[in-house]
Each structure stands twice: as structure tokens, then as C-alpha cells.
Amino acid sequence: MLVFTPNHPTAGFIPYPGGKVESAAYAPLMLELAEQDVLCVLIEMPLNLAVLDSKAADGVLNLEKYQKYLANLPENTTETIIEGGNHAGFGSYGKQEGDGEASISGSEQIHKTVELLLDFFAA
């Protein structure tokens, strides 16, 4: 696993990598989050397939508390789309089949992703 530890963490984040994607491909996103005081842990998945270890973070996440507070999510929770981004823009692993063409750079998409995650952590 790769751990990005800020000096004064205010939140934690454990992403699950996409299929056939090395965890390290998400390092630029995790680094930018860590610079904003978010502790990030990238877990290596068997054969780079997160579906083969869907409970890789259960040792960190308290599932009992998660289930207890799940109902606290607002009923109007919505999905946010990063206009101009694509799947490959979340990591540094290059274009993949079905991604579509991005109209923003990978670094711009990472920056927008960090902004959205910081807003989410602050809510």
C-alpha cells in the first residue's frame, strides 16, 4: 500500500482503483489531496482488480459505525459530473477503451476532483 500522510490530517480517503489499473496511477490525485490535509491510502489489489478484494479497507473502516450512520446521508444526495473529464483523468494510466475524449487536462481534472472531495469532506 502507498500512504500519503499530511502533517495535520482532517479527513481520510481510501480509493478503490479501476479494473486493471495499478494503484500507483492514482498517486497524483492522492498527493494533491494530502497537500490539503487529507490522509490517503492506496491499496494494491490482486491482479489490479478491485473486485477481487472488495473488503481490502474493512480493517480501517468500522463497518458497524458506517451502517449506523448511513441513514444520515441526505435524501437529495446527487452525483457530480466533471465536465470535460473522463475515466482516465482520475489517474495516470493513460487512455482506456470506452473513456471518450477529455476536453480538459488530466491535471485540471485532478484539481477539480480534489476541490469536490474537499467540499464533500467539509460538509
What report would you give on this structure?
It is a single chain. The protein contains three helices and three strands. The protein has helices spanning 27-34, 63-69, 106-122; strands spanning 2-4, 11-13, 38-42. Strands 1-3-2 form a three-stranded mixed beta sheet, with helices on one face. Strand 2, helix 1 and strand 3 (38-42) form a beta-alpha-beta unit. The longest helix is centred in the C-terminal third of the chain and has 17 residues, at 106-122. The protein is globular and about 40 Å long. The chain starts with a strand and ends with a helix.
List the helices and strands and how they pair.
Blueprint: E1 2-4, E2 11-13, H1 27-34, E3 38-42, H2 63-69, H3 106-122
Parallel strand pairs: 2-3
Antiparallel strand pairs: 1-3
Helix pairs in contact: 1-3
Gist of the model:
By secondary structure, the chain is an alpha+beta fold. 26% of the residues lie in helices and 9% in strands. Helix 1 packs across helix 3.
Spatial sequence of strands, sheet with the most strands: 1-3-2
| Largest β sheet strand count, sense and barrel closure | 3 strands, mixed
**Treating each run of at least 4 consecutive H or I residues as one helix, how many helices?**
3
Q: State the helical fraction.
A: 25-40%
| Order of SSEs | EEHEHH
Give the termini separation.
28 Å
- Spans with pLDDT under 50 lasting ≥5 residues? none
Q: Mean of the pLDDT scores?
A: 81
